[in-house]
Design a protein that fits this description.
Helix content: 40-55%
Cofactor: pyridoxal 5'-phosphate
Strand order of the largest sheet: 6-7-10-9
Number of helices: 12
Pfam families: Beta_elim_lyase
Keywords: Lyase, Pyridoxal phosphate
Low-confidence stretches: 112-118
GO molecular function: L-allo-threonine aldolase activity
Domain Aromatic amino acid beta-eliminating lyase/threonine aldolase: 7-51, 124-233
Number of strands: 10
Order of helices and strands: EHHEHHEHHHEEHHHEEHEEEH
Shape: globular
Length: 295
């Protein structure tokens, strides 16, 4: 029977801390759509002090969405179109689609190239958030991943920009009333979990270094700069992502295969001594797969 659980699939699986639950239960609230929720305003002020782009969709260059819809996916959805050539029959080459997919692998960028970023980048580069985002007109900050809030993303920008965002939010039916209940948890996340991110990065590096010593596994340790680890199976190895996933599940460890030869692991503040436990289980799983008849 599995008595220990280590969930490395994503940092979206974080659970609210006791302090968050207490803050949510006692949060001062009012109608945020009318602009009166005090806890929401407190969170907005904190994010504004801290900070003083987004998704893409791959489209054919002759597609209806790209040619005829007035940039609606960007205007309403905030999604940037990336176009590739349409074939004569209207299809797109699968190779072109694959090549168009961006794959940052959790890496951080040079400060001179960073436009928008999450708190993980701030911790990895060791500079204040406001320094990294000073050239950006707006920033979207997720609070529900490594920071561990149960829900929430904050948009930060100029007063004019935020007023426009609120209008669009109302148009799309996205307003919430007593939002302070959720903002209270977000404030605790900023106060308690923000300083812990650097330790998450160190734990991820430690795990990557240990994994890289194992037979049949390859990791670019130098590329592990934040809390994400990408583990590849070496060519010719008996290991596959699915075999390892199944073996680890028996130990109570959950991981996320990216394809047949890659597994992603994500560290967050709930993961403590589990790094050493995970390494031990992976060592045993790899040995069992490579040497199935060994006693």
């Amino acid at each position: 029977m599995v008595i220990r659980s280590v969930d490395l699939r994503s940092d979206t699986v974080t659970r609210p801390t006791d302090a968050m639950r207490k803050a949510m239960a006692s949060a001062e609230v009012d109608d945020d759509i009318l602009g009166y929720d005090p806890t929401a305003r407190h969170l907005e002020e904190e994010m504004a002090k801290m900070t003083v782009r987004g998704s893409e969709v791959i489209l054919g260059d002759n597609s209806h969405i790209h040619v005829y819809e007035n940039g609606g996916i960007s205007t309403i959805g905030g999604v940037h179109p990336k176009t590739i050539k349409n074939e004569e029959d209207g299809t797109m080459d699968l190779g072109d689609i694959e090549a168009a997919i961006r794959d940052p692998k959790g890496s951080t960028l040079s400060i001179y190239k960073v436009d928008l970023l999450g708190e993980h980048t701030r911790q990895a580069l060791g500079v204040p958030v406001h320094r990294l985002v000073e050239a950006a007109d707006s920033v979207s900050v997720c609070l529900s991943k490594g920071l561990g809030a149960p829900v929430g993303t904050v948009i930060v920008g100029s007063h004019t920009f935020i007023e426009k965002a609120k209008t669009l939010r109302k148009t799309l039916g996205g307003g919430m009333r007593q939002i302070g209940v959720l903002c209270a948890a977000a404030l605790v996340a900023l106060q308690e979990n923000l300083p812990k991110l650097q330790f998450d990065h160190k734990k991820a590096k430690l795990l990557a270094e240990g994994l890289n010593q194992m037979k049949g596994i390859r990791i670019n340790v130098a590329a592990v700069e934040t809390n994400m680890i990408f583990m590849d199976m070496e060519d010719g190895s008996k290991l596959t992502a699915e075999k390892l996933r199944k073996s680890l599940t028996e130990c109570g460890i959950l991981v996320l295969p990216g394809n047949s030869s890659r597994i992603r692991m994500v560290i967050y503040h709930h993961i403590t001594s589990d790094v050493h436990y995970t390494l031990s289980c992976l060592q045993q799983a790899g040995q069992a797969i490579h040497e199935p008849n060994r006693n």
